[in-house]
């Protein structure tokens, strides 16, 4: 998500009931990591290796997570936490499966790296929310 | 999902590593409840009421959940549990928002009912997995 | 989509600017065919056969088509026609690829059948719009 | 999509039956424009203005288009052309609706700009394919 888009998003768009608005730079980084992970997983799934079903699941979850962060008015702290946990778990599953053949497939290596980055970004969001 | 489709799905398609195959009738009911909830939420979101962002989030999560149950080879018990929890939490959020105007909008009432049915179906899956 | 949901959708939800409202039974049949095709393609894609990328593309397009029919306020006759054409073309591509191994895979046969049914339902919508 | 990801995609991933491989820089630009448009439309749809249903339709179509370009093994020239036409038409519809209130909403202005950029990128792909 580019800076221009973040600039026009109002504070209301970034807020959930009962929560202070999230740090915009952290959210932007998390949305970007989700988008990159969806793309990496989509490419990886076309290789017809045994990681493909996990890659497809992870691509869909990352897209759903990214969109939810763009529609925070429709989230609560509880549903946000649960969605972050699901995204982290799905990235973990996909990363584990891709790492099994990362040596022979540079696409699987790239996919595992994108999953790791997305997990880390979601965990940072989770920590920030827990501390708020 | 019709009975014909369930009939051609192999046991391998229904299984996760480290887990016995799920009960097919329970999974079919859960996939159907997710599909119905995605549709109800999508219709409800076009009303431009304040539940719309939650409805869009819930539609995406229910579609992601349904697809994940069709790609169980790419799930682990841990990621499946986390995804079910996220779907339950998102349905709860959407149901709560729609119930606030269920009296004046029959579409919101229908959406809240679909969210409730999807939550119940996901909870049944969750209980069955925890007992396995 | 069940009859209850169709019952609560207003005529406004079924209409595009500059077009009479569509026949509700025909739309319901088309949305159902798209939903069934998305599910069949999603299952088929997990088989890791060479049709899988076409199945994934078709699943996404059918979901997008179904949702667009639930959000007709955001469509014009021109964009509706183009979307129907894309869905028809994508179903054709997926059906052709799945038919190449329908003899050895009952899942591919089921997927090809679902693609054919979705194509036919989209073509019926297209004809009705062209005649309106 | 970053350069690293493009770098690991093989020529096979970029090719359709009966077509030379597409220009990778042009495809990368088109995938990026689709991703940016999906994000802009998703944000715009949360404003609850009358463009919202068109924005949601456009977000879904742009995501489907982007993914199809990452799964070219599952496309034919005919289905690719039809998908590009649908994406162009959907961006046009969304842009037209958002432009009606671009003066009062900077988010609608941003969304219309993203739709225009996505249309242009899809048209460039279309022209290149027609010339091949």
Question: Could you please describe the fold and organization of this structure?
Answer:
Chains A, B, C, D: InterPro entries: Csp_YhjQ. Chains A, B, C, D: This is Four-helix bundle copper-binding protein. 4 copies of one chain form a homotetramer. The first copy, chain A, is mainly α and 132 residues long. Chain A has a single domain (23-131), classed as Substrate Binding Domain Of Dnak, Chain:A, Domain 2 (Up-down Bundle). The first copy, chain A, is 72% helix and 0% strand. The longest helix of chain A is centred in the C-terminal third of the chain and has 26 residues, at 106-131. Chains A and B meet through helix 3 and helix 4 of A and helix 3 and helix 4 of B.
Total beta-strand segments of chain A: 0
What's the CATH topology label of chain A?
Answer: Substrate Binding Domain Of Dnak, Chain:A, Domain 2
Rg of Cα set of chain A: 15 Å
The share of residues in extended strands of chain A comes to: under 5%
Q: Largest inter-chain interface?
A: A-B, 35 and 35 residues
């Amino acid at each position: 998500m580019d800076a221009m888009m973040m600039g026009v998003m109002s504070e209301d768009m970034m807020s959930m009931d009962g929560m202070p608005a999230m740090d915009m730079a952290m959210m932007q980084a998390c949305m970007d990591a989700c988008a990159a992970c969806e793309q990496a997983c989509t490419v990886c799934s076309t290789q017809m290796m045994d990681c493909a079903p996990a890659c497809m699941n992870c691509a869909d979850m990352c897209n759903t997570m990214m969109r939810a962060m763009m529609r925070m008015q429709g989230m609560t702290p509880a549903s946000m936490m649960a969605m972050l946990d699901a995204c982290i778990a799905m990235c973990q599953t996909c990363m584990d499966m891709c790492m099994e053949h990362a040596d022979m497939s540079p696409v699987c290596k790239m996919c595992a790296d994108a999953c790791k980055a997305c997990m880390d970004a979601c965990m940072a969001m989770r920590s920030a929310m827990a501390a708020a």
